[in-house]
Amino acid sequence: MDDQTRMLTGLTGLGGLSQPDVGDPDSVRKQQSLGQPQQDIGDILQQIMAITDESLDEAQARKHALNCHRMKPALFSVLCEIKEKTVLSIRGVQEEDPPDPQIMRLDNMLLAEGVSGPEKGGGSAAAAAAAAAAGGSPTDSSIEHSDYRAKLAQIRQIYHSELEKYEQACSEFTNHVMNLLREQSRTRPISPKEIERMVAIIHRKFSSIQMQLKQSTCEAVMILRSRFLDARRKRRNFNKQATEVLNEYFYSHLSNPYPSEEAKEELAKKCGITVSQVSNWFGNKRIRYKKNIGKFQEEANLYAVKTAVDAANVSAQASQANSPATPNSGIGTIRPHLIVLLPGFYW
DNA sequence: CCGTATGATTTCCT
DNA sequence: AGGAAATCATACGG
Fold it and tell me: Which band of pLDDT confidence, cut at 50, 70 and 90, is reported for residue A38?
């Protein structure tokens, strides 16, 4: 501030201005450079300095007088210029920083996860990508899948409403400060550039809030995602009916338990599971059966009976279309010696 | 709580 | 790419 006061006091010795067009800052500068006396400015400054020593009423009156003074705009423009050259220019250098890399990172992630960006499409695409990354087929539409999407939509909604609130608050505050500064610029020298800078400062402060919002949204998505992936990894036993269908196929194709793609699809549909789950099941079953045939003997016999009974029922129904027999009613009638013992495996 | 069953994943092979 | 084998991680029953 020392420089500024020195510059200001330096002005006092320049003498008064007689030209009427003092509203133009350029003319002021011209006159200064020409070394013309500017007594008026000196007077005004004296008066300003003296204001603090005066009573409130006097000060108010003088302030008003100063406000109306024909020299005021010129003086303010000079003061603003000085301010620009001193304090503000020092700060101004590091102000023009590029967009925060962390915010950019968060933005990219939110976009990739489908939280920000276009509406529905992004979300489902991200979910599909997550599913694909987890090894599932993208065509699988499981319950977890829709669950994930629903949760993501929820996060999305919260994020957008919060962001909207934030933007509203930010612009409200900015407007408020801008109005305040504009108001104040009548009584103290404030350049438009300074207001601009203040707005930038406010925005920077608000962007840290925005970052917090984005960060916590990202965290929420990550948690949801890990839970989603965990859910896929978490094992849920297939229901009885599904294992029954799979076992039936396995033991009735024991000589070649390798269902074709079509057969897998059919089984998947019947069991309410995915094709890859069918593949997993057959992979597991084959290896475990082969490892310990003895352990599966009982099960094998059971399903051999089952298929035999079913076959019998089918043929019975075919020959007697109006037979009242239920599919399982024949089990008790099967004689033990009819149980087909297992064929060996050749695979 | 422990042992076994079982669905999923990983690694290697063809 | 699809399968075998090993392994992981959880479910489930006693």
Answer: low
Q: What is the CATH number of domain A240-318?
A: 1.10.10.60
Between CA A141 and CA A199 the distance in angstroms is 49
Q: Which residue is nearest to nucleotide C6 (CA to C1')?
A: A287
* Angle CA A159–A161–A165, to nearest 5: 115
Delimit the CATH 1.10.10.60 region(s) of chain A: 240-318
pTM: 0.47
A281 touches strand B (CB under 7 A): yes
Spanning CA of A142 to C1' of B3, the rounded length in angstroms is: 32
Listed as ranges, the nucleotides of chain B within 7 A of a protein C-beta are 5-10
Distance CA(A142)–CA(A153), nearest Å, equals: 17
Lowest mean pLDDT among A266-280, A306-320, A330-344: A330-344
Q: Which has more confidence, A131 or A54?
A: A54
CB A134 within 8 A of CB A232: yes
pLDDT per residue over A140-178, tens digit each?
444 455 666 777 778 888 889 998 998 999 899 999 988
Instruction: Please tell me the distance from the alpha carbon of residue A226 to that of residue A274, in angstroms, as a whole number.
Output: 21
- Residue A69, φ and ψ in degrees, nearest 5: -65, 140
Largest CA distance in chain A: 130
Structure confidence at residue A87 as a pLDDT band (50, 70, 90): low
Beta-carbon neighbour count of residue A217 at 10 Å?
A: 23
